[in-house]
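S2.1 Query sequence (Malate dehydrogenase)
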Amino acid sequence: MQFLLLLASMASMALAAPPGWSADTAKFYSGVSKEIRNARNSNRQQPQCDFTRAVLPSTDKPLPQVPEGQKLLHVAIGRGTQNYTCTSPNSKERLTKPKATGALATLYSATCLAATYPYLLSLLPNIALQLTNPPYSPIRNPSSDPSTTFGPNAMPVIGYHYFSGEGVPIFDLLADGHAAVEKIEGVDAPKGAMAGVGEHVHGAVPWLFLAGVEGNEGKAKSVYRVNTAGGTAPGSCEEVEDGKEAVVEYAAEYWFFG
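Output C-alpha cells follow.
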C-alpha cells in the first residue's frame, strides 16, 4: 500500500505539471501509470523498500564488483555541474584542452525507487538534466525546507558532492558523514546516453568506481557513478571564453556502499 500511495502521488504531480514535457518525463509518468494499473489488478504483495533488492546498473564493460562485506547505504540522483579550466595552474598559460577542476552537485534520495521501480529510476538522470539546475546551497537540515525536493517524484536532499582544496572528491552524506574518495576505474557511458543540454552537448561523463581514501570519515567506503547524462568538457579550449571556466551541467545516479 505504501508504494501504491507513492505512485498515486507521482501521478497527481503529473496532472499539475506544465505542458512541454520531455520524452523522458512522458516515459516516467507512463511508467507510473502502468505500475498503478498493475498494482490495482494484481493480488501480489506490493514491493517493499528492501535495499537488498536494488541492483547496481552495469554496461557491456562492467565496473568492479562491490567489495565483499559492503552493503548498500544510499542511491541518489546527483544534479549539478562538472567544472573545467583552460588555464594552466602553474604557468597561467592557455591550455589546448579543458582540464577538470572538480564538480558541484546536490544529491537527492532515490534508494527506495532503486529497490522497487528501477526502470523509473533509470529515467531520472535524463529528466533531471532537462530541469533547471537547483542552486548549489548546502544546508545541514534540508528536510526543514520543502523547496529542496527535486524532480517528478519530489526527491529530498541527502547530501552534497564537491572537491576539496586538494582535489579530493567529497560526498557529504548528511546522515552518514563526509566520504573522501578517489577514482579507481572508469568506463565510457553507453551509446545513446544523453550528451548534454544548452550550449554544452559534448557527451555523458564516464561511469566510475570510487573508493575511500585514507582518512575517510564517512560511512560510505565505495561510490559508483552510473547512468550519467551530460557533463563532458568541450573538445578544445577554443570553445571556452578566455579567462572563464567551462561549467557543464550533468546528472547521474550515485550508489553508496559501506
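Confidence is low (pLDDT under 50) at residues 14-19. Helices lie at 2-16, 23-41, 111-116, 118-130.
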